[in-house]
């Protein structure tokens, strides 16, 4: 999620997709930190919300709290961004925890300018997790894309620049590396097969069974 500005209220250029996220000091409801102080082996999901003590944001915070373990399991840290003060964040977090009986373990930071979304429409945390899975799957294998409504384990797409042989070789190498890194280091024990079974619907539209390799074994 793109963000703009700085925690001290200064203006800044918008961060666009593909840009390196700049480091800066942030003051959160859990203390002072910096963007790059989060676990470097994790991805960082920045989610903005327009204002504390608002009904839609309260439900979103509660659902993210319920899904926190799912994000952590995928190697994703969460950071909330809002224009409110730290004191307002703390009071809001307490309200949400008491109302929805959840524990909010991710921080919320004051940000001078956040992404805007329709404030009356709540976001779908299930879809956020699905998108994270798809991004991780594509990142793990650069020649792979995911079709509409893709779920982990569904068939994946071959990008137009990829050859079937290259994809098979890469997936077989990843399967062997994952097995070698496991207990005992036996490259043949429990290594998932990298299935072929390409299905070409059009010259530009090729499907392949997902080999089921761990989404995060390269990070």
Automatic annotation (TrEMBL):
It comes from the Eukaryota. GO terms for biological process: cell redox homeostasis; cellular response to stress; hydrogen peroxide catabolic process; response to oxidative stress. GO terms for cellular component: cytosol. InterPro entries: AhpC/TSA, Peroxiredoxin, Peroxiredoxin_C, Thioredoxin-like_sf, Thioredoxin_domain. The keyword ATP-binding does not apply. Residues 174-195 are annotated as: Disordered. Residues 15-178 form the Thioredoxin domain. The keyword Aminoacyl-tRNA synthetase does not apply. GO terms for molecular function: thioredoxin peroxidase activity. Pfam families: 1-cysPrx_C (PF10417), AhpC-TSA (PF00578). Keywords: Oxidoreductase. Belongs to the peroxiredoxin family. AhpC/Prx1 subfamily. This is Thioredoxin domain-containing protein. It comes from Cafeteria roenbergensis. The lineage of its organism: Eukaryota, Sar, Stramenopiles, Bigyra, Opalozoa.
